[in-house]
Amino acid sequence: MRKVVLILFLSFFILKNTSAQGLLAKQESPNNYFPVQSNDITAIIGAFENEVELLKTKINNKKETVIEGIRFYTGTLNGKPIVLTRVGIGKVNAAITSTLLLEHFHPKAILFTGIAGAMNPNLLPGDIVVAKQMAYHDYGRLSSNGLEKWGTLNPYNFSRNPIYFPCDSALIALAQQAAKKTVLQNISTHAPQIFFGTIITGDVFLADTKKNIALRKEFNADATEMEGAAVAQICYQQKVPFLIIRSLSDSADDSAALDFVKYGNLAAGNSAQLVLEILGVMK
Q1: If both were cysteines, with which of 38, 93, 155, 192 could 126 make a disulfide (CB 3.0 to 4.6 Å apart)?
Q2: Catalytic residues, which ones?
Q3: C-alpha 88: how far from its chain's center?
């Protein structure tokens, strides 16, 4: 009897350790760092409700899924399978929602739609900046000499990420193609235009003319907002194509708070319109 018990114990021990080693090997495999991407679904995210509401009303065969309290909407938009969600305001909210999105829906690409403050003096409310690259303006070492820009650390191997996260070149090309077809809502002073450039991200609503000028000089930035670089970092690390699209609600200066109220909805609508056209030219 004791011999039988010993054999059973040894068998269980070997099986348990073999399974644990296999699980550990699976977890440590570089191929398991990255989600399996779908061949047919595009993710669309925004921060504010008005940034996603226009698109949400146009979804066909809409289905709502709630994950960890966050609402995701699937269906088709302009003939393409999509998942749409609101990430909330700020970098942490954007990172949490983007992670859930990648884990549960495995999109082939992420499009961020929303509003931002202008930094390029040639840009006006209602204009759109499509990001070629994204960067944090509040990450690094702050001393009496100012902010020393650092790249974030990749948690997989603690290698240094680039300071500027490049948006996907194929998605930029689609945006350039879609821009020719996009009809933007005019404001009283001018007809909005679509530009391609650099957008920076930080956990502040920038409403300071002097700080705007300083950040513009430091990063050569065209617009500033509060979520895009966090999404860009996650997509960069997870090897998921992404594109950040921002329509300008204000000039991130001393009058930014008033302009945000005045032009916010119009800007959100213009950004959403470009997203619809990008979906239309996708294959």
Answers
A1: 192
A2: 51, 250
A3: 11
Q: 87-120: string of b/e by CB count within 10 Å (b at 16+)?
A: bbebbebbbbbbebbbeebbbebbbbbbbbbbbb
pLDDT in tens, 72-124: 999 999 999 999 999 999 999 999 999 999 999 999 999 999 999 999 999 99
| The predicted structure's pLDDT at residue 14 | 41
Q: How far apart are CA 94 and CA 229, in angstroms?
A: 9
Q: Which residue ranges form the domains of the chain, and what is each CATH number?
A: 36-281 (3.40.50.1580)
Return the H-helix or E-strand segment holding 84. strand 80-86
Q: Are 82 and 43 in contact (CB under 8 A)?
A: yes
Tell me the pTM.
Answer: 0.86
Phi-psi bin for 68: left (phi > 0), alpha (psi -120 to 50), beta? left
Phi-psi region at 18: left, alpha or beta (left = phi > 0; alpha = psi -120 to 50):
alpha
Whole-number Å distance between alpha carbons of 91 and 202: 7
| Residue 26's pLDDT band (cuts 50, 70, 90) | very low
237-to-55, 61, 110, 233 alpha-carbon distances in Å: 28, 32, 14, 6
What's the whole-number mean pLDDT along residues 158-182? 97
Q: Which residues lie closer than 8 Å to 72 by C-beta, 6 or more apart?
A: 64, 65, 66, 83, 84, 85, 101, 104, 105
